[in-house]
Design goal:
five-stranded mixed beta barrel; alpha+beta; eight-stranded mixed beta sheet; binds aspartyl-adenosine-5'-monophosphate
């Protein structure tokens, strides 16, 4: 048959033409002898008019009993609506000639897509009694994720996520990086932390990789010069927070450096403005869809990414009356507070903090040459929340082994990693980014579960 037209392509310019479209019954309304079916596809909606005089009484009966979310295909003519349309994304309507049902949905839905797509301001309008019913709770959404993903905002979020990944890859390929894939089943914990999933690897103790850290560095020892990876990262997080998942998508980079870890920060400082610009250029409709449900302001960032030392950050917080440990880590509140202070002073919501205290960084981090209390490391923030950690790495095997022991790591479990540095290793460094966090913060969403297709957290392993 004829090719299908996407609902988003049903516009003024094609009024008069006959189209075939496939979508879901978003809702159905009978007015006299006319049936108004709102058809939804990929988050876009169009009004389809089924008139008895055109299709006959049997067809009206058939269409009327179609449950919400059923998959239908129809043939119709693109037309001007009699009155301007308010409830649909498309401003034309379809006069239906034929309609078929491809798959029926159960009539009782655990979550109605129309409700799940409501914005807060919409909910406010639904009146005192309506409010509770209109607000779909996060757990209901996640338990019924397949229905939840059908909302326009969610359709858009995952398109934006895809474009972030594409822009990341595009930029790095243009800079001569090689895309690699490291193993996710490994013998020892890669971050030395406790949040590791342990498993039995045919009788041998093993872990799910907490990051590609060990193997991306080993790729550098294997003379791959500049590498990146996009892949799953596993963390057995105990706490239930708005920004921690037990499985997320890591965007990782590792590269040789010549003189200084600032070369890595130079790359980051170019990479992210590139990604932000590409998202604005390539996803205008998607950003609008997300904003409709979750209003947010575009990210403020400078063409030249701001860099502050950790000590400068601590100083700013102290001056603002915050109590902070100069050799400890920033907690979530301090990070947020610093984000506000930086925005006021420097007018940016994207910045880097570098030269962190050694005590709060992983064992493989290179100490700062002038003061080993500090390290050649950095974190990057969007809207006051961490999206990235990075650093220069220790490339001397003796020092690496010493630091691992000091951090309480069983060196036997990472001996092949340490050995990799015994055959000569160039100075190098890199960083890791959480994809879900980037999308969450770009769109100022309040929960990382919104940007994970099927989130895995400390309490959820399904759907
Ligand atoms: P780090 O442990 O800071 O560094 O992780 C890097 C980035 O990954 C994201 N992230 C998470 N996202 C969702 N859920 C989690 N539980 C979670 N944990 C971390 C954050 C964080 O900034 N190997 C180093 C990176 C490097 O130095 O190259 C590492 O893993 O966005």
């Amino acid at each position: 048959g004829k090719e299908l037209t996407d609902v988003s392509n049903l516009v003024e310019e094609i009024v008069g033409s006959e189209v075939s479209i496939r979508g879901r019954v978003h809702k159905n309304r009978l007015v006299g002898t006319k049936l108004f079916v709102i058809l939804r596809e990929s988050g876009f909606t169009v009004q389809c008019v089924v008139e008895e005089t055109r299709v006959g009484a049997n067809m009206i009966k058939f269409v009327k009993q179609l449950s919400r979310e059923s998959v239908v295909e129809l043939i119709g003519v693109v037309s001007h609506p009699k009155k301007p349309l308010t409830g649909t994304t498309q401003q034309v309507e379809i006069h239906v000639r034929k309609m078929y049902c491809l798959s029926r949905s159960l009539p009782n839905l655990p979550l109605v897509v129309e409700d799940a797509a409501r914005s807060e301001s919409d909910i406010e309008k639904s009146g005192k009694d309506g409010k509770q019913a209109a607000r779909v709770l996060q757990d209901t959404r996640l338990n019924n994720r397949v229905l939840d993903i059908r909302t326009p905002a969610n359709q858009a979020i995952f398109r934006i996520q895809c474009q972030v990944q594409i822009a990341f890859r595009e930029f790095l390929l243009s800079k001569g990086f090689l895309e690699i894939h490291t193993p996710k089943l490994i013998a020892g914990s890669s971050e030395g932390g406790s949040a590791v999933f342990r498993l039995d690897y045919k009788g041998q103790p093993a872990c799910l990789a907490q990051s590609p850290q060990l193997h991306k560095q080993m790729a550098i020892c294997g003379d791959m010069r500049r590498v990146f990876e996009v892949g799953p990262v596993f963390r057995a997080e105990d706490s239930f927070t708005h920004r921690h998942l037990c499985e997320f998508v890591g965007l990782d980079v590792e590269m040789e450096i010549r003189m200084h870890y600032s070369e890595i920060m130079d790359l980051v400082g170019e990479l992210f403005p590139f990604i932000f610009t590409k998202i604005e250029e390539r996803c205008p409709k998607e950003l609008e869809s997300v904003r409709k449900q979750y209003p947010f302001q575009s990210l403020k960032f400078l063409p030249q990414t701001l860099r502050l030392t950790f000590a400068e950050g601590i100083q700013m917080l102290k001056e603002a009356g915050e109590e902070v440990d100069p050799l400890g880590d920033l907690n979530t509140e301090s990070e947020r507070k610093l984000g506000q202070l930086v925005l006021e002073k420097y007018k940016t919501e994207f910045y880097m903090l570098h030269r962190y205290p050694s005590a709060v960084r992983p064992f493989y981090t290179m100490p700062y040459e002038n003061d080993s209390n500090y390290s050649n490391s950095f974190d990057v923030f969007i809207r006051g929340e961490e999206i990235m950690s990075g650093a220069q790495r220790i490339h001397d095997p003796e020092l690496l082994e010493k630091r691992a022991r000091e951090c309480g790591i069983d060196v036997k479990t990472i001996s092949t990693y340490i050995d990799a540095f015994r055959y000569g290793a160039p100075p190098h460094g890199g960083f890791g980014v959480g994809l879900e966090r980037v999308v969450m913060l770009l769109c100022a969403l309040n929960n990382i579960r919104k940007t994970s297709l099927f989130p895995r957290d400390s309490q959820r392993l399904t759907p």
